[in-house]
Amino acid sequence: MEAIYLLEPCKDSVSRLLRDFTNNPKNYTAAYVYFTIACSDEILKQISVSGCVRYFKALTILNIGFLPIESHIFSINCHETAWLYTCPVDRVPDMNNRLESLAEQIATLCVTLNEYPKIRYRKRSSNLELAQFIQLKLTKHKGDNPQLGQGLHKDRSILLLLDRGFDPLTPLLHDLTLQSLTRDLKEINGNSYKYGKGQEYELTDKDKLWKELRNEHIADVSKSLPTRLRAFAESKRHFLASTKKADEIASGASSLRGSQESINSVGTTSSGVVNYGADVPPDANSNASRLSSAAHLRALQAMVHEMPQYQKEAASYNALVSITDYCLSACRENINNICTVEQDLVMGQTAHGDTLPDPMMSLVNVLKPDSMTEVDRFRLILIYVITQGGILEANLEKLLDYARLSLTYKSLVAAMSSIMGARLISSVDGSFDSPLFRGLPSLASAPSFIQYYLPIKGKRLRDVDENSYALSRWVPYLDDLLEKCISDSLDSQCFPYLPGVQGSLSKVGSFPKPTDQLAVPNSSDLRGPSARFRAPSPQPPSTTRTGGSEGPAGGIPTSPDLSNRQKQRSDSGRSTVSADDSIFGETSMSDHCGPRLIVFVVGGITWPETRVCYSVTQRCMEARLAASDKSSGPTTGVHVKNRGHLGRHSHKSSGLSLPPSQPSNQHVLKNGGGAGWNWEVILGGTGVLTPKQFVANLQNLVEYS
Question: What's the pTM?
Answer without folding.
Answer: 0.79
